[in-house]
Amino acid sequence: MAIESEVLSLPDEKSGKALQFIEEITKNTDPIQERVLANILSQNADTEYLKRFGLNGATDRDTFKSKVPVVTYEDLQPDIQRIANGDFSPILCAHPISEFLTSSGTSAGERKLMPTIDEEMDRRQFLYSLLMPVMKQYVSGLDKGKALHFLFIKAETKTPGGLVARPVLTSYYKSEQFRKRPFDPYNVLTSPNEAILCPNSFQSMYTQMLCGLIMRHEVLRVGAVFASGLLRAIRFLQLNWEQLAHDILTGTLNPKITDPSIKECMSNILKPDPELATFIKAECSGENWERIIVRIWPNTKYLEVIVTGAMAQYIPTLDYYSGGLPKPCTMYASSECFFGLNLKPMCEPSDVSYTILPNMGYFEFLPHDDSSSTTLSRDSQPRLVELADVQLGKFYELIITTYAGLCRYRVGDILQVTGFHNSDPQFRFVRRKNVLLSIDSDKTDEAELQKAIENASELLKQFNTSVVEYTSFADTKSIPGHYVIYWELFMKDSSHPPTNQVLNQCCLVMEELLNSVYRQGRVSDNSIGPLEIRVVKNGTFEELMDYAISRGASINQYKVPRCVSFTPIMELLDSRVLSFHFSPAAPHWTPERRR
Ligand code: AMP
Q1: In the chain, pLDDT over 70 holds for what percent of residues?
Q2: Which residue lies with its CA nearest to atom 18 of ligand 1?
Q3: pLDDT over threshold 80, residue 381
Q4: What pLDDT band is residue 540 in, cutting at 50, 70 and 90?
Q5: Pick from 280, 445, 263, 410: which is nearest to 334 by CA?
Q6: Which of 332, 350, 414, 518 maximizes ligand 1 atoms within 8 Å of its Cβ, making it the mutation to test the pocket?
Q7: Distance CA 306, CA 318 (A)
Q8: What is the pLDDT of residue 4?
Q9: How many angstroms separate the most distant Cα atoms in the chain?
Q10: Does the pTM of the predicted model rise above 0.90?
């Protein structure tokens, strides 16, 4: 099978062919992986990177594995920076780098820059084209209506060398493949392109919600990329239903919607509909928002959102608003590479497994166990396992080699093998390494939190006060969620305690120190609420330790958990709170990178 040509020319209309294609590639995992690696290595044989490791044009796995090291983003950063600065020689990839995709994973506080090439867009498009054929096997009639899918673009910048840098979905929604997609009855959106492509997040969300309400009987599925995005849309409806109902009653568009292309396209969609306006008022004016999704969109068959990984925290809230509709997690992907899909999308979130497709890139797996985190061979290079050779039940870190020039790159995701489809393994997404706190796409690690706390606590010095212990919690009870930091303070002079104003300011200082994805969520996307500090009584963290020891923790090895979510611990902490403090302003954020 000629993988490349199959990949790039998969007939879009033929579901049967798509399923057959999945069957074929999953029966040939290992040979396809071997071919993919050979293709990547021959394509990139003359790159500076592969030459640096003396590959000399070799395309076999053994030479590749013996010569090319496993790397992190930080290892590649000097090369990536050269590309960003405008060096267009073949450094990582023989093909010209078309743009940078900005990952939600950060390095030194800024989004990682992932170089990509034009043909990767086709590979991403290919994976998308498989989703509906899989879904159609489980849900019928999806061609008889529309999808209310809240899709947004985010800010983009240019690197010093003039390449665009933007998130992968922004790149996709702005592409011709998306904007000029041929009509497909299974993929009709209620949202017009003009709304999806509007850079103003309020105007975009408002218009998408308005269209969803107008077409409410046609809606068969409701979704967003991540669960947090869909809940933000529900919150938006709570805050804006009166104006939306007014627009529908009068057939006139909210004057806050100023985008000319949205105004033009809505003039064809928005007509006075007093009956619908009355219905929206009746549903939204009450206190009870339980099952609001199925009340407003009664034909919804499922919610299309990712609820695996950090998003699992939103499942109870989604169930509340949807009356427990199925939540198929359809795919597993990243800025670096799209990996695979869920072949049983209607399963319970806890049973979701992703089948990594062997034609998307070359995949290796670093055995992972929590005690030793990496397995090293004698020459201290990690011992990696092939995609076809992973073992059922085992945990691995995903390592990828891509057509765009990443070689043996550690993505940072920990996966567990749950089964096989033909010869192709399926994985449960376990977690992202080193992520302590996450509300939306932000990923804050322990070191960042520690640094933020150190800086904020400088403000306490004038009160002879220091932070003796801390922990944190991602509070998603209200939408948007926010970070809560519990502080136990030591005051040398209790007659002169830190003022409320200073403690509020500490919240803001912490936010300023957090990564750009966090600050973008606070400032531009409104997907994260103001950071909160809860000051707890002296001795609280000792009680926390006593509690852990009573549950079997070793007194010698006990470490304060830097993030908590276990209910009894939360209850203990919350029962000892002396004062609550919130960030008084939004931190700074602009699309420009700080470095
Ligand atoms: P980004 O680089 O910003 O595109 O983020 C990609 C990361 O998001 C992946 O490496 C995962 O950590 C996470 N992710 C993507 N898809 C899923 C999924 N289906 N379930 C859980 N986490 C996911």
Answers
A1: 95
A2: 332
A3: no
A4: very high
A5: 410
A6: 332
A7: 11
A8: 42
A9: 78
A10: yes
Measured by CA distance, the residue closest to atom 17 of ligand 1 is: 332
Residues 308-322 have pLDDT tens digits of 999 999 999 999 999
Distance, in Å, from the CA atom of 301 to the CA atom of 326, rounded to the nearest integer, reads: 8
Instruction: Find all residues with CB under 8 Å of 267, minimum gap 6, and list them.
Output: 253
Residue whose CB lies within 8 A of the most ligand 1 atoms, among 166, 429, 515, for a mutation test: 429
Which atom of ligand 1 sits closest to the CA of residue 339? 16
| Contact criterion met (CB below 8 Å) for 463 and 497 | yes
- Nearest residue (by CA) to ligand 1, atom 16, is 332
- 482, 484, 479, 530: which is closest to 508 by C-alpha? 530
Looking at the DSSP bridge assignments, the partners of residue 11 are none
- Ligand 1 pocket test, pick from 116, 128, 154, 306 with the greatest ligand atom count within 8 Å of Cβ, gives 306
Q: List all residues whose CB is within 6 A of at least one atom of ligand 1.
A: 103-105, 168, 306, 308-309, 329, 332-335, 411, 413, 429, 432, 441
What is the pairing mode between strands 465-475 and 409-421?
Answer: unpaired
What is the whole-number distance in angstroms between the Cα of residue 335 and the centre of ligand 1?
A: 8
Q: pLDDT at position 379, please?
A: 55
In this predicted model, what pLDDT tens digit does every residue of 160-185 receive, in sequence order?
999 999 999 999 999 999 999 999 99
CB atoms within 10 A of CB 77: 16
Question: Is residue 391 classed exposed, middle or buried when 0-12, 13-18 and 19+ CB atoms within 10 A define those classes?
Answer: exposed
Contact at 8 Å (CB) between 154 and 521?
A: no
